[in-house]
């Protein structure tokens, strides 16, 4: 089950009634505690949910009506193939999935660097100090694919998508409200030739890079150096 972890430095070292509050001692304790925790992270799910919420695609049809394009999560080939089998696909149609994750080395900090911040406590009506190891910077790559029968519709959808990245798209998650996404690449991978009795299918793919962090466990620390609470969800 999930729970919230509480810990005090005095509990781990009864021989020291007044724990050392120096930087090295605090850092070593934070490092030790972080290694022993099975921390869960929903950062990937949160980013995908934010993308699905922010990316709204559409086009103007021949009747001058605005038509929304459905965006579903899933690998493009499997999702579209299943829709065709069910005979219920309506073009244009789009899918998105996470195609890769890489380390953002330009933002990486040195190992075991402590990050200090503050968190307001309504119960005691004051800000409390929060300490953690540095978060892990990552770049998540997402592939967005769009299928259409007509080039004019696909061009409108492409322009609508590009207009959202000016120059970036800001995403809000439960972890942060300023996650930035960038449109990196656009590719036309339509079939040049189609067989007899087959409908022409035009397809474009877009690569979206999302810059974010995988959070490290965060601990609340008193002025005496005691770690009294951790606000990261863990599994026990």
Write the layout of secondary structure elements.
Elements: E1 2-3, H1 9-12, H2 23-35, H3 43-54, E2 57-60, E3 66-69, E4 71-73, H4 76-86, E5 93-103, E6 114-121, E7 126-133, E8 136-148, H5 151-164, E9 169-171, E10 179-188, E11 202-214, E12 218-221, E13 227-230, E14 234-235
Structural account:
The chain is an alpha+beta fold and 236 residues long. It has a single domain, classed as STM4215-like (2-Layer Sandwich). Helices cover 23% and strands 38% of the residues. It has five helices and 14 strands. Strands 4-5-8-11-10-9 form a six-stranded mixed sheet. A hairpin with a 4-residue loop joins strand 6 and strand 7. It is elongated, with a radius of gyration of 24 Å. The protein starts with a strand and ends with a strand. 19% of the residues are buried. The N terminus and C terminus are likely disordered.
Question: In oligomeric terms, what are we looking at?
Answer: single chain
Number of domains: 1
Task: Tell me the series of helices and strands, N- to C-terminal.
Answer: EHHHEEEHEEEEHEEEEEE
The number of E-state strands comes to 14
Which bin fits the share of residues in helices?
10-25%
Q: Helical element count? A: 5
What is the distance, rounded to the nearest whole angstrom, between the alpha carbons of the first and last residues?
A: 6 Å
Mean pLDDT: 77
What is the name of the CATH class? Alpha Beta
| Structural class label | alpha+beta
According to CATH, the fold-level topology is STM4215-like
